């Protein structure tokens, strides 16, 4: 299982092994265990982080195959080299760090694309005072700082990022809230008349206003109307504009609505809010969660073009700012604006 993410704007120091290892949970959204994390150094200078990819540590017989599968992901982007970090397993006294053979396979596979491994690191876990070591220099070793006390942690907290204890805990955010409700709504959607008699843009605006007021999950009727509205391509595409500016309160409210609808709608209708959720998370630099949302969309609708496109550019490590253009589409003709009017200010 692999997870790809762009580094976004987090101030990662690629020169300091201890700080780099401590930053991993904030880069991928959860605390890695039994993992290999590869960090691309963006060309030409190589001092900025490009694609960040996490994968499970493979079994011995799968090492070469996994290395060959990982290397092209970095070759597709503009990278000057790669740092490899292995997380997990105990080091035997007097022995090199664990998984040294896998590191060799990665060096060979990446080298075939002209990508050097600039640094190879190991730690048993991302925790305060955990030991860390380099694979090529016995004197390159030490103890990790408190990951929560780093510059990267402060920047992530300021940006509203949350670090989960595991990948499974992060993925659980997308689980259905109530399977029985999904079954009811799937039945209602199959019996929905054509054409539907409501204003789709108004439904989206009303849902965003309810989200702002914190009114909770939609009713069956509201969920069905929202699902129907988002199946209109012009409406769905116009909703991409709610993700800009990425860290604004409006963007976060919209992202919360898409997450709610992912949990509240059946397949295949669930694919539309999942794609919007993936786009919003991508723009914020939350590549791991963006990938999960886009995979959720493709599970609900394997032919979903937008989700497939976004997942491909995510896998290539494209910087989030290069996708801002998708949000600049015109308002859907004949439907009116998507965003609700601002809440009136209250007099003090």
Description:
A seven-stranded mixed sheet has the order 1-3-2-4-5-6-7, with helices on both faces. It has helices at residues 17-28, 63-75, 100-111, 151-158, 167-171, 179-190, 200-213, 220-230, 233-238, 249-264, 271-283, 287-300, 305-315, and strands at residues 2-6, 35-42, 48-56, 79-87, 117-123, 131-134, 141-143. It has two domains: 2-164, no CATH class; 171-328, Alpha Horseshoe (Serine Threonine Protein Phosphatase 5, Tetratricopeptide repeat). With 348 residues, the chain is an alpha+beta fold.
Mean pLDDT: 88
Oligomer: single chain
The spatial strand order of the largest sheet comes to 1-3-2-4-5-6-7
Q: What's the β-strand tally?
A: 7
Shape: elongated
Percentage beta strand: 5-15%
User: Low-confidence segments, ≥5 residues, pLDDT <50?
Assistant: 344-348
End-to-end distance:
53 Å
